[in-house]
Amino acid sequence: MEQTIILIKPDGVKRGLIGEIIKRFERVGLKIIGMKMVAATGDLLAKHYRSNDPATLKRWGEKTLKTYTQYGKDAKKDLGTNDPMELGKMVNKWLFDYVTSGPIVAMLLEGKHAVETAMVLAGPTMPVQAPAGTIRGDFSTDSAAYANVEKRGVTNLVHVSTSIQEANFEKTLWFTPQELHEYKRVEELI
Q1: The predicted structure's pLDDT at residue 23
Q2: pLDDT at 99
Q3: 35 in helix, strand or coil?
Q4: 48 among known catalytic residues
Q5: Could you list the residue range(s) of the whole structural domain that residue 88 is in?
Q6: What is the predicted pLDDT for the residue at 187?
Q7: Phi, psi at 121, each rounded to 5°
Q8: What residues have CB less than 8 Å from 5, skipping those under 6 apart?
Q9: Which CATH number fits the domain that encloses residue 107?
Q10: Is residue 189 part of a domain?
Q11: What pLDDT shows up at residue 188?
Q12: What's the pLDDT at 18?
């Protein structure tokens, strides 16, 4: 069985969406084998997002420039630079400020096609692009276009692992083996 990490970010917690988000994952048969509420530290987030990697920061900066171009805006005018590394550092700060602004609910889910299923349920990272019926599509309309101008992280409710490799890595960051549980859901007993 596959496993995947889900993080209900501070905006999901503060809006009282924890139960709704959990329900969406459970009703498709994904099993919660670990869950806790945590306050994320800068060190943990740096490992999770790999933000100490210059390639990651550059990629984030390039995405920011692409968003500015897409919406006909000028990054240098709004943010003081159009250097991808500098923009990536800004995005990193905004992301960390957002994700440390309140508690996070961390979950490790298990099930058939857990990674792909969780990604489909969450919807695209940018809520404005997420279709109705997905978590982000039903509960957020935020976008990088607004977040960048407002100098903040995109409030997109959840983090979802995007590959089995990423899920396996993230699992070791967020959970110890003692925090994980084995049990059978009712449908597994049949």
Answers
A1: 98
A2: 97
A3: strand
A4: no
A5: 2-180
A6: 85
A7: -65, -40
A8: 106, 107, 108, 109, 159, 160, 161, 166, 167, 170, 171, 174
A9: 3.30.70.141
A10: no
A11: 85
A12: 98
Calpha distance 148→64 (Å, rounded): 8
Residue written as token pair 């109705």: 132
Vertex 78 angle, CA 148 and 123, to 5°? 15
Q: What is the pLDDT of residue 190?
A: 79
Whose CA is closest to 109, among 174, 47, 48, 61? 174
Q: How many Å is the Cα radius of gyration of the chain?
A: 17
DSSP symbol at 30: P
Low-confidence ranges of the chain (pLDDT < 70): none
Range 82-107 burial, b when 16+ CB lie within 10 A, else e: bebebbbbbbbebbbebbbbebbbbb
The model's pTM is 0.94
Cite the beta strand spans of the chain per DSSP E: 2-8, 31-38, 104-111, 158-160
**Other beta carbons within 10 Å of 151:** 13
Of 48, 113, 159, 181, the catalytic one is: 159
Indicate the number of domains in the chain.
1
- Report d(CA 105, CA 97) in Å as an integer: 17
Element spanning 127, H or E: none
